[in-house]
Structures are given as C-alpha cells and as structure tokens.
Hints:
mainly beta; 8% helix; 2 helices; 11-stranded antiparallel beta sheet
Amino acid sequence: LLKAPEESGRALKTMSASFVETRVLLLLEEKQESRGSVALQVPGRLRWTYTAPQEGVMIIKDGRFTRYFPKSRQVFRGEAKGEADLLVGFGPGAASLGQKYDVTLVGEEPVGGSATHVLDLKPKAGQGASGTFSEIRLWVEKARRIPVQTRLTEPTGDHTTIRFTDVVING
C-alpha cells in the first residue's frame, strides 16, 4: 500500500486542486476555515492561493516561503519548514514516505464520495516535519493513489485538515 503513493509521487510533474482548510485550536476552542486553490510544479514550486475568508498567497520555492496578504499589504518570508508538509504524499516527498515516517494503515474511509485508505505518519527521529507536526494522517484515494485529505497535528494537539477537490495531475 505504501508503494502506491510513492509510485504516484515519482510520476508527478504538476498538480492543481481546490482545497478547504480547517484549523482547530484546542486551547482557544476555535475553528477556522479557509478556502482556495493550490498548484505544485516539481521540483520545488508550490503556490497556495487563499480566496476566503481572507485573500492571500503563499509561495514555496527553493526551500523558502513567502506569504502575502493583500488587504493588509503584509509580506512574511522565511525558511519553509512545516509548510513543505502541507502537500506530503504528493510529488517527490511521496517517494520517500517510508524513509521519513513510520507509516501505519488505519483502515478505509470515504472522503468526498471517494474510497480511501487512511494512513498515519509519525516522523522518525531526525526526519519528517522538523518537529512542526507530531503526526500526519493521509486519506489516499484508492483509484488514483493520491491524497484527497491530510490532517497535520501539532505537538499541542492543534490540527489542520486540508481536503482537496478537483485534483488535476500532470494536466
């Protein structure tokens, strides 16, 4: 089962999709939802375009990120750490899942009408998300062998779930 996303990852050149991102902050008992689109070009170019509730763009290129909020005219730049794991399971990163993570098959679950395998990824010592995420859960679509949903859990228990729709691979 682990070979499926790894094989798909090696074949990936471009990917585009719409997304719904739900962030849960446990301590504040708060839930935030964002929507937008994402585009990936292998190697190493990623663009997240947020359309709601606040417009914004995040670009990751060559291991660095830039995030821009047009309404407030703010720009943030830095080293891409956890940001690179937003698309874990897609592209070259999928080709090394077993090297970076201890992977466990949790079961099967439908997501958006698609049958999926549910995988838990726990970063191996010195690997994974550099301590940004304590656990990552992937819902991998059986038919196309690509993630259709990802949940990134921080050491605090806060988590972000990203559901991908209208996914186009190498299109």
